[in-house]
Amino acid sequence: MGIPQTGGTTMSELLKGFVFAALLPLGQAMAWQAPVRVSPNLSVVPLSDENVSVVAEANASGAPKPARSSTQETINQAGLDLRHVEESVRSGAARLLGKYPSPASAAYLTFALDDRIVRVRRAAIVSLAELYLNGFYIYEKPLVEKILSKLGDPDVEVRREVSALIPRLSIGLFRSSFEIVEINGRRVARAAPATLRADLMEIARKAFFDPDAIVRQNILKYHYALRLPLSAQVLDRLLSDPDLGVLLTALNRVPSSTPSETVVRRVEKLSRHPDVGVRKKVVSVARDSNRRHPGYRAILRKMTMDEEPAVLSMAAVELARLGEKIDPKVIQAVGDYLLGVAGASTQVMTILYAVSAFGDEAIEIYRELTEHTSSKIRTIAWQRLLTFDNGWGRPDVWLPALADRDKTVRRAVVANLSARSRNFDLKTMEQLVSSDFVDVRTFAASSLYTARQDAVEEVAFDLLIDEDTGVRAQTIRALASRRSPGWLKIMSNSLLDEEYVIKRAALDGLLGDPVQGVKTLRKFVSEHPTDSITPLALAELKSRGITQ
After folding, report:
1. Rounded-to-integer distance, Cα 62 and Cα 52, Å
2. Number of other residues whose CB lies within 10 A of the CB of residue 109
3. Measured at the alpha carbon of residue 191, what is the angle toward residues 190 and 195, in degrees to the nearest 5?
4. Interior angle at CA 118, CA 112 and CA 122, nearest 5
5. pTM of the predicted model, to two decimals?
6. What are the pLDDT digits (tens) for 65-117?
7. Rg (CA), the chain
8. 3-state secondary structure 154-210
């Protein structure tokens, strides 16, 4: 890639300048003016409205304004300050450069990583991280390699920051480039292989065993970004790490690692780890690694005997998903666990859905869970229960769900029923109509579209006099759609209802029949010219080419 320009100075010139400056005598390097310091004896007058007016007048009279440094001048001065004899000045300059994203800032900060004072190096790496986080990426490979080399810095804070930056550094490390080679006497350009320098590769390998847990965890997370292989020997060692964060991260790497007997034995040992979180992670790792090595399924079998119900349940459902027959006692333990949980956590929901893998044995678990204290669990339990043995087609099975105290449960069941055939008989419709819940009675009204005729004739009147306006309106629309016996009279009477919503439903129903319905509507508007619905009725008739 080309060398970026920086205020008229090329990056290569800038890098050469650092080398030259490093050879300057200290006195010459200090030739610039030191920052002005405010005397502690100087009294500062706070600005008031009067003072502001005086300043404004002075400016208006042509008084000279203080000179402001350009961004490039600020960056260059900070670069000079990075060679100041006082470490406070150098660290301050390093912090400042993080606020000015530019190739020059990146170059200055990178060379500041070699400062002998830890405080300065920390400030430099924090500012480099700030540049990256603000969207300024460094593509100059020598600079990026310099940053990565600090993965071996003596200071732990520097190493932590560098290890966290690995995903971003990889862009500059492995960016496509070209090289000129001679082939059959001809010079040609070809893509240069993107590889990590041998010394940097060694530094990265050592980071797996860094004294600091955060560095170890980060290199485990991001080793792929450095194209750094994770051997079975290294993984095995990290699977015994005393830090839980490192240990859990190492477990995450098991499914994508090369199958190894050593690693399988280590994971099996971790299945008995005293920390419940580790054992839960082992379950998911064994599940994801099952196809790569048969030993992982054996681990899952052992974990169905775990003393922790959550771990036992996770292992059992995963084995069932793999097609294994689960001991009835284990299935009962899973059911007891779900019945005893307080709420629907992600873990609980995963197990709850997976219970279906038990087959017929899952029916009783779901049936018991329809009485759970959590409405979310009850909802899923009802949905799963009704899926078994064509429960959706059996009103005797799903009707109890519509008596649930929580509307969300009832709504979920109704939504599934609405998507299915609803040729309900009289007994079913009567139970729906007699419900204490408005949403259930509304569902009954919408079911009039497809219910058996005898059921419609029996329950329609009860729905027409329902206390809820929405139920009555839905009933009117359904009866109009079916052209039930006496529907024209029902529509005419509904046009006189006190509720405008009912009037509008009846109007729509009559307009749906271009012959008898329209005739009935024309008669109504003639007899009731001042009714509130008449203007709309006339407009609707006119839009259809019918004048009164």
Report:
1. 16
2. 29
3. 140
4. 65
5. 0.73
6. 545 569 999 999 999 999 999 999 999 999 999 999 999 999 999 999 999 99
7. 39
8. CCHHHHHHHHHCHHHHHHHHCCCCEEEEEECCEEEEEECCCCCCHHHHHHHHHHCCC
